[in-house]
């Protein structure tokens, strides 16, 4: 493994950490409805737990209402029950062959809790990025010990890994600021 491979590997892993954070932040509920908040709900589909988007069509009816249209009519009650029992605090209602899921407006207290959750997710992402930096630096030290790289090359590579780390941490901070603004907007 070369110095460039170590840096590239670290950069790829850090990018995956950012992608994971983006996915986690998408699940955090803001005042507006979006179908992504229902993605992780599991429904009992013929005895096996299945993700809701795989058994129903999710659409936005309006800014605060999600429409869930099951592929099979007999899944209507099962899906409605799964949404009601989820940890999202939503109260779905069947209207014909579609389930309407209104997303209630968030209280100020709930918004602050959501901001804390977002900051917690961001801190986890920063820890992941720093762990990747640590692993990359250990690989670089091992290369010097094995005499496959010089100490000067190691120092330069460590500086570049640190710059990568700083760049990704700044991106995490930017994502948090955007999400916080989105949550606190009434």
From TrEMBL:
The UniProt entry lists the main location of this chain as cytoplasm
What compartments host this protein?
A: Cytoplasm
The protein's matches in CDD domains, at most eight in alphabetical order, are given as: RRF
Key word Ribosomal protein present in the record? no
Instruction: Cite a single GO BP annotation.
Output: cytoplasmic translational termination
Q: Name one GO molecular function term.
A: ribosomal large subunit binding
Keywords, comma-separated and alphabetical: Cytoplasm, Protein biosynthesis
Ribosome recycling factor domain ranges (all copies):
21-184
Described by its record, this protein's role is as follows:
Responsible for the release of ribosomes from messenger RNA at the termination of protein biosynthesis. May increase the efficiency of translation by recycling ribosomes from one round of translation to another.
So what family is this one in? Belongs to the RRF family.
State the name under which the record lists this protein.
Ribosome-recycling factor
Q: Which organism is it from?
A: Massilia horti
């Amino acid at each position: 493994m070369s110095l460039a491979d170590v840096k590239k590997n670290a950069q790829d892993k850090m990018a995956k950490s950012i992608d994971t954070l983006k996915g986690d932040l998408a699940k955090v509920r803001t005042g507006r409805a979006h179908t992504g908040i229902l993605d992780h709900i599991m429904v009992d589909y013929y005895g096996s737990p299945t993700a809701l988007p795989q058994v129903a069509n999710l659409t936005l009816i309006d800014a605060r209402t999600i429409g869930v249209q099951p592929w099979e009519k007999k899944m209507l009650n099962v899906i409605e029950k799964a949404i009601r029992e989820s940890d999202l605090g939503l109260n779905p209602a069947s209207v014909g062959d579609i389930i309407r899921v209104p997303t209630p407006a968030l209280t100020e207290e709930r918004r602050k809790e959501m901001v804390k959750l977002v900051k917690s997710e961001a801190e986890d992402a920063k820890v992941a990025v720093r762990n990747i930096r640590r692993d990359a630096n250990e690989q670089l030290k091992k290369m010097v010990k094995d005499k496959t790289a010089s100490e000067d090359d190691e120092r330069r590579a460590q500086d570049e890994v640190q710059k990568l780390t700083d760049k990704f941490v700044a991106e995490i901070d930017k994502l948090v600021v955007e999400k916080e603004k989105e949550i606190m907007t009434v």
